[in-house]
Here is the input.
Amino acid sequence: MDTQPDSLRAKNHRLVVRMVVIVAAMFGFAFALVPLYQVFCVVTGLNGKTADEAWVPPAEAVVDESRWVTVQFISQNHDGMPWQFAPEVYKVKVHPGKPTRVSFRVANPTDRHMVAQAVPSVSPSEASRYFHKIECFCFGRQELAPGEAESMPLQFVVDVGLPETIRTVTLSYTLYDVTEPQDNNNS
Here is the structure.
């Protein structure tokens, strides 16, 4: 009779160990999910995610002068971001393969030094694999003093491989306040 409770106790112990391992694995997966998702989005172009670093055009760039693609620019501020932020032109027509330069205007109307980060998105999401940023203010943080304004450059290429069914690409930026909180402790 005494062997049955030991057997039951051993089964319960194995069950508890398995459950702890499962919970730890789930926690680890959840922790890794965000970076994995971001990599997946960049590779596949899902959700219009674009690369976070400059694209280097090939030495022998090909330009498709037989067609035009309209590139539209949209800007918005994340909640609580007081800066003024807008493209200097709202759309351009480009030949695929030809580098194009535009600028966005930003101004800090506050009375404090602030730091911002722009996060891009391309739609339709399929087009993000064919939209290459050569130079972009979104690759780094932008710092502005109180009342300061600046023109921020963007140089890009729409790849000649862009499907011909896509005639308009929209590049949207959301501007986030990433200013570090000031330490009010003088000790």
Strands lie at 69-77, 84-87, 91-94, 100-107, 114-123, 131-136, 142-144, 149-158, 168-177.
